[in-house]
Amino acid sequence: MRYSKVLIPTLREEPAEAEVVSHKLMLRAGMIRKLAAGVYNYLPLGLRVIRKVEQIIREEMDRSGALEVLMPWVQPAELWEESGRWEDYGKELLRFQDRHERWFCLGPTHEEVITDIVRKDVRSYRQLPLNLYQIQTKFRDEIRPRFGLMRGREFGMKDAYSFDADEQGAEESYRVMFDTYCRIFARCGLKFRAVEAETGPIGGSFSHEFMVLAETGEDIVVSCDSCDYAANLEKAEIERSKTPNKEKAKPKPLELVSTPGMKTVEEVCGFLKVKPQSLVKTLIYQGDSGPIAALVRGDHEINETKLRRLVGCERLELASEEVIEQVSGAPLGFAGPVGLKMRLIADQGIEDMVNFVTGANKADAHLVNVNLGRDFQVEELSDVRVAREGDPCPRCEGKLLFNRGIEVGHVFKLGTKYSKALKATYLDEQGTERLIIMGCYGIGVGRTAAAAIEQHHDDKGIIFPPALAPFQVLILPVNVKEERLSGVAENIHHSLEERGIEVLLDDRDERPGVKFKDADLIGIPLRVTLGNRFIKEGVIELKWRWSEEIDLVREEDMVDEVLKRLKSIKEGGDDEHS
Ligand code: ATP
Ligand code: MG
């Protein structure tokens, strides 16, 4: 393909609208353009990369035995009402009415639609297991669309749904998808990690997120420094102290102290001259069945997902100031466990504490020398806090490390949530009607491409992993007016195209500096440069985008050499470079 005929509107300047490298480079390389917040046009170069990601996904999904389908983007409200998500999904669901005033939404995901297909057309255990997937546009009205394709409102996703007759089958389907995802991301040239993730209020099932490690990631990947434990921050477990503090100090008499206007941990600690580790925070939540108090050490944070799971609530949120005042008898900032008549849940971290500070359930007052057991009891002492870097690993003697990551994929064992709500059943061998067990599996297509750029770039531009590159070879004659250069460039271009290689010929009448800058920016793996050395010595320069090394090849050897190099990179599993 000729550069002059392709729309590649590269930008020299850093686009002001972009914060992260991948977004900046996708704009600068002329891959994408913004149409509205979180809604993008894919220009030729960008689309080629997206198609590469999709093709890898498609090949690996097909290889796993999954079947490709295509479901509509527009979905009727009734299906969402059946699952209960018309209510629950919130504002990310873009809803609209047709001319008959019937409600619809733009699909943010397709559990309802796929379950509807299966409940209508799958009757017998003989039709199971089944795994159906699609590569489709999704719409989620994200509160903060940002980072380009990384968090769009309209974005491409591969979503797959498995249907099994029993738990064992469902676990096998999950395992197959897990392995398939590992192959997909490895083929995309990504360094990734599968981490344990939260399963939400459904519980009991399992879930992993596939994280690409990158500084700009929005997620935190928690991993052990010595074993292979890894989880996202929401899920990361904390080991209960293996060596409980037996040498505890002696409890001192409980004391009420005046703390006028001191509400936050910082204020109280400053005022009483104690460390946050010697204070216990009391947070009051409103759950499905009334208020709940959660206790956690002053320097720790409550993990609401863990708390919600422990107390068995679907919904749990911090109580309003009014509720707090009503149940504790004191304004916000002064609640404490002593004398508090409600469900009390404590983080296990307070087990070892002696003579700590808490609120006094009284305005402008705190209690000091509070002790668990002597002064108050709790219903549960469990892991309900957010992990911190350096915490002990829940699986071994190691310590937890924190890294930033980008979630590119998610595998999730759903169980019967949707089959129950939408009544998707099958008849087993005995003719008994049973619920189908489901799993769902998503990959963000644009996010995967963006993540690849986050991991593969330098200060000059993108360094595409060959498997995702829009072209494999760029031919760069430094001066197209020089007939010898352009003639040979044309010949090599022609020969490579004939052999099915994706090659871009920079046939523009531009200064060499402009051409080299664009070449580095758009990141095509192999560059063939025809310059002065060709005129003087008859040699052509051959260079990988990720290396400074330049090899000199004669014109007659060039096509074979290019083919050989591309083959070697393919066989090397696409990860020789970086
Ligand atoms: P996040 O926590 O990042 O919002 P999610 O949990 O909502 O992700 P899923 O519903 O599991 O994501 O969607 C499957 C995949 O779709 C994600 O792993 C991600 O790669 C991609 N994805 C989700 N939301 C977006 C988005 N707004 N823009 C681009 N890709 C997205
Ligand atoms: Mg989301």
Task: Describe it.
By secondary structure, this protein is α+β, with helices and mostly antiparallel strands. It folds into three domains: 214 residues, BirA Bifunctional Protein, domain 2; 142 residues, Alpha-Beta Complex (YbaK protein); 101 residues, Anticodon-binding domain (Rossmann fold, 3-Layer(aba) Sandwich). Helices cover 28% and strands 28% of the residues. The chain contains 15 helices and 31 strands. Strands 3, 7, 8, 9, 10, 11, 12, 21 and 24 form a nine-stranded mixed β-sheet that branches. The chain has a five-stranded mixed β-sheet with strand order 16-14-15-17-20. Helix 2 packs antiparallel against helix 6, helix 2 packs across helix 11 and helix 12 packs across helix 15. It starts with 20 loop residues before the first helix and ends in a 7-residue tail after the last helix. The model has no long low-confidence stretch (mean pLDDT 94). Bound molecules: adenosine-5'-triphosphate and magnesium ion.
